[in-house]
Amino acid sequence: MKLETTGAFAGLLAIAVCASAAMLWSEPGLTVLSAENGRGYCPVPATQVRVVDLQAGPDLLLLMYGLSQGRGA
With bands split at pLDDT 50, 70 and 90, how would you rate the model's confidence at 10? Predict the structure, then answer.
């Protein structure tokens, strides 16, 4: 084949691949989420309601500092 024919064939092939990818591209449509209980919001499970205020201990802070320093040479 001539170089011009090969280039034209490759160009048409690239356009065909891009066109088929554009046709097959699917994105989710716009939908409105609603709660089943009619309150307008989804209730949080009881196990996740409790929030415990955790404080980082000195051992944890020392570990994080040591890990952030990297390897010693």
Answer: very high
Rg (CA), the chain: 29
CA separation for the pair 1, 9 (Å, rounded): 10
Q: What is the pLDDT of residues 11-58, one digit of tens each?
A: 999 999 999 999 988 777 777 666 565 666 666 665 655 566 677 788
Among 33, 49, 29, CA closest to 41: 33
- Specify whether the backbone of 47 is left (phi greater than 0), alpha (psi in -120 to 50) or beta: alpha
CA distance 66 to 62: 6
